[in-house]
Amino acid sequence: MSLFNKVDELRSEFKQALASSPALSDLERMKQKYLGRKGVLNDLFKKIVEVENDRRGEFGSLINQLKLDIHDLIEERINDHRTDTLSISAVDVTLPGVEYERGTLHPIESTLRDFKQIFHRLGFAVAEGPEIETQWRNFDALNFPPEHPARDMQDTFFLENDSVLRTHTSPVQVRLMLEEKPPIRSIMPGRVYRNEAIDAGHYCLFHQVEGLYVDKNVTMGELKATLELFCREYFGENVKLRFRPSFFPFTEPSSEMDVSCFLCGGKGCRVCKQTGWLEIGGCGMVDPNVFKAVNIDSEEYTGYAFGMGIERIAMMKYGITDIRLLFENDVRFLKQF
Amino acid sequence: MNISYNWLKEYIDIDLEPEVLAAKLTDAGLEAVIVETLPEFFKSIVVGHVVSKEKHPDADKLSVCMIDLGREEPKQIICGAPNIAAGQNVAVATIGTTFPDGMKIKKAKLRGVVSNGMVCSERELDLSQDHSGIMVLDEDAELGMDMVSYLSGNDVSIELDLTPDRSDALGHIGVARDLAALLGLEMRKPVFELNESSTPTSDIISVELEDTQSCPRYAARIVKNVKIGASPVWMRQRLQAIGIRSINNVVDAANYVLMETGHPLHTFDLRYIEGGKIVVRKAGDKEKITTLDGKERELDDSVLLICDAKKPVAVAGIMGGENSEVKDDTTDLLLESAFFDAVVVRRGAKKLQLATDASHRFERGTDPNGIPFALDRLASLIVELAGGEITQGQVDAYPQTIEPLEVSLRAQRCNAILGTEIETATISKILNGLELFHTEDGGVFQVTVPTFRPDITREIDLIEEVGRIFGYNSIPVPQHFSIANKINKKTPDQIRERIIDHLASIGFNQIYGNGLLAVDEHPSVFGDEEALILANPLSRDMASMRSSLLMGMAKVADYNINRRQSDLKLFELGNVSTVDMDSDTGACETSHLAIFISGELQSKQWSQESVEVDVFQMKGILSSTYRDLFGLDLLFEPMEHDLFTESIAIYLGEEKIGILGNLKMINQNLKSVRGVYTEVRNSENLGLSRNIQYQKVSVYPAVERDLSILIDAIVPFGKINETIQKNAGKSLVYSRLYDIYEGKSIASGKKSLTFRLVFQNKTRTLTEKEIDKDFRRILKGLEDAYNATLREAI
Ligand SMILES: [Zn+2]
Questions:
Q1: Least CB-packed of A17, B106, B181, B580 within 10 Å?
Q2: CB A224 within 8 A of CB B418
């Protein structure tokens, strides 16, 4: 009998043994017999020297395959024995399943993500910059004249060396326009600081998403179209947008944007303070003085910029009435998002 | 700033409802809301007519009055004021009125006589300090009218939230001008009479400007023989409607002209102006003046002063001096109408920490050429209200006339910016409505910008005006828009999102910490951080920038643990900053990742034991995150650290990027915080260029072997593992430590380690002999290096 036949013989012998419904102890014994270091399969393997050279590989893998099969079949039976013990009292399927607790994104994060996703689809890249800025990038380059009341609009934290904690993410626009040539189409998400007393509606820091598009032939109409599309995607298809003239040193013309209250549909409710409108941010056409500061020719290029406060919008969306909750990080709060 | 609806009507014929008007103003950039300037309880205080007055039968000082409230029968009301008399109109607090101090008017008996209300004094209504008697109202007041309507003359108050560029709209005339342009109506300037005496003003006073840069124009007038007294009802109503308290006829007149023209004015008592001279000059160092509010203020040369021949009499553009204040016995007035430099006033106001109606306007820019009009208007109004005579002429020091700017505007450019097709004629009409008079040639306008619009200096400013009046909401929205044809740089943002998503998906809660900390809240986490200190912090506990995420995380942990939430799995990804003299901001910012775990990582369930947190849990979380997301292996080395027990330094290659350990108590305030913490930096620059290449999976069988060794207990796993890898050869594809044992059944000073080893070859089946050879080589390596011995399988 060839050694190859011997392998087949051992396989059928094993199958027979398995067919006789062995007990748990029999199974352990079979494991030793076939798979142990001194088991029959190892013994057979040692006879590989008797096999012709060119068939040795084949012989080896045949034995290995048998080993694997036997191992799997025995383990399967051992498992069956275990579950049988359990099933004596019938499985109580109403017992709770083993659950994996999920983690959560902070509501500021998830709101930022929603924003990024929509603007990404509209062709905006993401640009970032530091939270500590020079006064030049935070104010001067953005057409805030020194000692102008416009600087009071944004209560500023100063460092001892006269740098500032950025009061908006607009200095990232300055960095971007200095680094890249138009077309520039980016949003700038990030953390900003205001030296304001903390209460339910104000915190000393918050997050913004600003956007900037600089190219030839960029118009205010296009700015409206972009923001309108964004608002309909984010707040719902039926929201309306309202633009009100305003003043920001870095844009001219400047506008505030209001979205019709998505909670009451514009009829007036607590959230919109009965006005039917929610203020969501500011926007406008990049002021020629800003272009001048970053060496872009304002006759050749025009651009628009906009900015929105993330916390405000997250609070409206999730019905959070106190901004401090966002920075308290109570896990019972966090786990709701 | 508040404006009055009725007052506006003096300059423009509007018939819009106040709400509609407010909406129109808002759409044009003057954010307007209708507000109440009088308290709610005034609505139940009504005009009553005293029909009869009799003495109270049982009290000398009380009167029993029958008062007609314009409805039903007259009511019997008891009054204690000496000045009440039949025939008067009085303010009656009806039953149910609740005063701000909680006093409620009820039907009551006073010494046996029923009283159905209360007759009010001015002080009871907080209208003045006068408590000498009840307030006597106008003879022709409508009976039953409530005090809100009576005091405001049935007016509506509109609050304007103006942007700092719109100084022109800081008065009723300016608002009317915008409305005229918006509604296509005419705006009227007030017309008044000015009768002058023959005495030239210049005989009485002269003006000397020492600093024409700070004060380009100063005009004065004299009004003699005025009689200070109360203002008439119409004036009181006007001021009441916009929330200004009536003081006396002269002060009221100055406030009125301010709120009409937007131009601040000042009145001096002429008898205190010494030497017949006004000198405008910078203050000397440490020079002092006591301002109208009774405070003595020390000045420096940033402050501009109005002086007479001997002393300062006012802080220019900010507040008058106490020494020249108009008093009840004042008869002769010096009126000031001047133009001060915006920056000078702003610096002065900052120095004195004083913000007044005047400084607010000067800081935003007033109209130098509106000065004579405002001054004449004030003189005329004072004579109307307080009598007296105006001397002849203004003394007007204006050495260098400030001319209006000429600015050109291209209609084509205007439409290119706005995205509109507004016709040239329409643009022209809009400009005219705003008094931006111009000539036009081939679509190019030459606009003369009046000096009351200091915000308009460039073409773009005119474009905004056109857009504002045309209406932003009328700008058409295109159906298509362009997207830049440009490849965008990859940003760390994407890497950060992947880390956050990964941690959230394995059960962690993301936090956003407050980045501002007390100066002493910077425990040395990395050893080299120097925190940035704020020059003007909000409070002591938020006076510096976080140099690590540890304190913020610990505070959040403390907050939660104190609320019985002690099984925590938290992480934060945020910027920290430290001092860096080489950067132009003096700061270096890096992104850090912090993870904190405490309590049970997994709670006990019926089929599963609980898992307590330990440093190895954290090590696994961190190393698998880096391996799975970036394909990078972190190295962990023991270290000493003041903040941790079981401290571990984390390396990426040669670079130390973080720490990990079991937190000791950070400070007394954060006693409750115990757990495992890790913080690593710069994680976001990794993996941006990670290149994944598919590896073919071997079809040849894998063989498992278990290796159990006995080895000296002090040999670290890392060394043992290294030795295994070094000696393994190519076929060892996987090894896993699955048991460590130290204890009774083995020799002391030894430990037993069991590895599961898996051998596999990509191109062929391994022979038992080959595997044995590999296995023995591994064992030999361990024997040689550490005297390890093979432990027989049980
Ligand atoms: Zn609503």
A1: B106
A2: no
- Separation of alpha carbons B498 and B454, rounded Å: 51
Q: Which two tokens stand for residue B431?
A: 């400009």
Four-way CATH pick for B703-790: 3.10.450.50, 3.40.47.10, 3.40.50.720, 3.30.70.380: 3.30.70.380
What residue in A sits closest to B488 (Cα-Cα)? A125
Query: Cα–Cα–Cα angle for B536, B542, B544, nearest 5°?
Result: 70
pTM: 0.82
CATH number listed for the domain at residues B40-152: 2.40.50.140
Tokens for B232, please give them.
Answer: 């008439």
Q: Do A128 and B493 touch (CB under 8 A)?
A: yes
Residues of B in contact with A324 (CB under 8 A): none
- The size of chain B, in residues, is 794
Q: Where are the alpha helices (DSSP H) in A201-280?
A: 220-235
Q: How far apart are CA A186 and CA A124, in angstroms?
A: 4
The residue whose two tokens read 């309880």 is: B41
Q: Provide the β-strand partners of residue B577.
A: B589
Biggest distance spanned by C-alpha atoms of chain B: 130
In 3D space, the residue among B202, B204, B200 whose CA is nearest the CA of residue B275 turns out to be B204
Interface of B with A in 151-180 (CB under 8 A): 163-166
Quote the CA–CA distance of A252 and B757 in Å, as a whole number: 70
Helix, strand, or coil here: A152?
helix
Q: What does DSSP assign to residue B512?
A: -
CA-to-CA separations, B130 to A301, B74, B89, B125, B504, in angstroms, rounded:
65, 27, 17, 10, 68
Phi, psi for residue B181 in degrees, rounded to 5 = -65, -40
Query: CB neighbours (10 Å) of residue B37?
Result: 19
Helices A24-35 and A3-19 pack at an angle, to 10 degrees, of 170
Pick the CATH number of B493-681 from 3.10.180.10, 3.40.920.10, 3.30.930.10, 3.40.630.30: 3.30.930.10
Structural domains of chain A ordered from first start: 3-90 (no CATH), 107-334 (3.30.930.10)
- Rg of chain A taking only CA atoms, in angstroms: 35
Can the peptide bond before residue A183 be classed as cis, meaning omega within 30 degrees of 0? yes
Contact flag B560-A147 (C-beta cutoff 8 Å): no
- A-B CB pairs within 8 A amount to 263
* Full pLDDT tens readout for chain A, 337 residues: 578 888 888 888 888 888 888 888 888 888 888 888 888 888 888 888 888 888 888 888 888 888 888 888 888 888 887 776 655 556 788 888 888 888 999 999 999 999 999 999 999 999 999 999 999 999 999 999 887 766 766 689 999 888 999 999 999 999 999 999 999 999 999 999 999 899 998 999 999 999 999 999 999 999 999 999 999 999 999 999 999 999 999 999 999 999 999 888 888 888 888 888 999 999 999 999 999 999 999 999 999 999 999 999 999 889 899 999 999 999 999 999 9
ipTM (interface predicted TM): 0.84
What does each C-alpha distance from A327 to A103, A153, A198 come to in angstroms? Answer: 18, 24, 12
- Please state which of the four CATH numbers 3.40.50.300, 1.10.8.60, 3.20.20.70, 3.30.56.10 is assigned to the domain occupying B405-474: 3.30.56.10
Q: Does the beta carbon of B453 lie under 8 angstroms from any beta carbon of chain A?
A: no
Instruction: Decide: B240 and B38 in contact? Cβ < 8 Å.
Output: yes
CA B692 to chain A, closest CA, distance in angstroms equals 24
**Chain B environment of A288 (Cβ under 8 Å):** 458, 460
Calculate helix-pair angle for B424-433, B172-183, nearest 10 degrees.
160
| Pairing of the two strands B732-741 and B31-35 | unpaired
Nearest-CA distance B512 → chain A (Å): 6
Q: Is B562 on the interface with A (CB under 8 A)?
A: no
